[in-house]
Design brief:
Blueprint: H1 3-38, H2 48-140, H3 148-164, H4 169-183, H5 192-197, H6 202-214, H7 338-341, H8 354-357
Helix pairs in contact: 1-2, 2-3, 3-4, 3-6, 4-6
Length: about 350
């Protein structure tokens, strides 16, 4: 507060005090001086008794008038107090409303600031994820056996990105699927013995397991390993539902307890693979090579095995409700029961075990 404002405030307080004192003096003067003016002393009648009675009556009237004045002033004071209190209440209410309005404005400002901060953090996080994604792609493309640890680290980095940023998961699935197709290469020696002994590359195996662990999340991108060499791959307990694994080389792969609902294995080579207790409902195995596959306890309900080669496959305990076995070769399959066979679709080209033909 400047000096001029301070002086003005002192002047206003002094004027208010003077006004209060003048009002008090006027009230005292009114109460004391008004009754004698209203009841002047009467002229003497010459009779002392009568004069005394008249004077007593005048004094009583003055006292009553003063009492009435005091009561009226008290009533006015009470009304003034009520007015002052009501005004103070209105002022307090306005103050409370102003306080609430200010608090609401502050809350909105804080929310807006928080939203801006969240947006800034999201942009910063997107930038970091983009940098990590680009670096992982560069590392994944490094060739040679010496770069194997680098590629494995890149695969784990992409898995973390997919889990932290669901919107980036489709691109991660596409990149890792392409990597599996590229890294899953056949052996240099094309001889059948070399093919049977071939094992999936460690980095391809790591990418496969990463994709299998991500596939349970919603993604617009499906797994596609067309033609990849994944011999002896460890795929147990993975979710490969809706994946396309057509023409893949998966001899002696381990898919125990894996979930492959509606997975496409068209023309895939699954010889001697272990699919025990796997969920293969509605999977497609058209023309697939399943010789010697162990499929005990597997769920093959609704599976399409048309033209598949199931010679020497073990189907003990497998369910085949609605399975399509038209043109399939089960001539030396084991564990197939007549009850399960009756639930399937077959035709004249289906080759059944000899004891079913007897």
């Amino acid at each position: 507060m400047v000096e001029g404002d301070f002086l003005d405030a002192r002047v206003r307080r002094a004027a208010l005090l003077l006004a209060v004192l003048l009002c008090a003096a006027a009230i005292v003067l009114l109460v004391w001086r008004a009754p004698p003016a209203l009841y002047p002393r009467p002229a003497s009648t010459g009779n002392l008794t009568v004069d005394a009675q008249l004077e007593s009556a005048r004094l009583a009237a003055m006292a009553t008038t003063r009492a009435a004045f005091v009561a009226g002033l008290a009533g006015l004071a009470a009304l003034g107090g009520l007015w002052v209190n009501s005004r103070a209440l209105r002022v307090n209410q306005r103050g409370l409303e102003d306080t609430r309005r200010i608090a609401e404005d502050n809350r909105k400002a804080q929310i807006e600031a928080l939203n801006l901060q969240t947006a800034a953090l999201a942009l910063e996080s997107d930038g970091r994820i983009t940098d990590r994604y680009g670096k992982a792609i560069e590392q994944l493309a490094q060739p040679g056996h010496d770069a194997l640890p680098v590629r494995l680290g890149a695969i784990h980095a992409l898995e973390r990105i997919a889990r932290e940023s669901p919107k980036d998961q489709p691109s991660v699935v596409a990149v890792l699927s392409a990597f599996v197709r590229i890294a899953g290469v056949p052996p240099d020696d094309p001889e059948p013995r070399a093919l049977d002994a071939h094992r999936a590359a460690p980095d391809a195996q790591a990418a496969v397991r990463t994709l299998g662990s991500l596939s349970h999340q919603e993604s617009s991108e499906s797994i596609d390993w067309t033609g990849a060499h994944l011999e002896r791959a460890s795929l147990h307990n993975l979710d490969l539902s809706d994946a396309y694994l057509g023409w893949t080389h998966m001899q002696r792969s381990y898919l125990k307890n894996s979930v492959c609902r509606q997975t496409n294995f068209d023309h895939a080579d699954l010889r001697c693979s272990i699919l025990v207790t796997a969920n293969l409902a509605n999977a497609v195995f058209k023309e697939a090579r399943l010789q010697g596959a162990r499929m005990g306890g597997a769920n093959l309900d609704g599976a399409i095995l048309a033209g598949a080669d199931l010679r020497d496959a073990d189907l003990t305990g497998a369910t085949l409700l609605g399975a399509d076995l038209r043109g399939a070769d089960l001539s030396t399959a084991r564990g197939l029961t007549r009850g399960e066979l009756e639930k399937t679709r077959t035709n004249g080209y289906t080759k059944l075990p000899r004891f079913f033909e007897d």
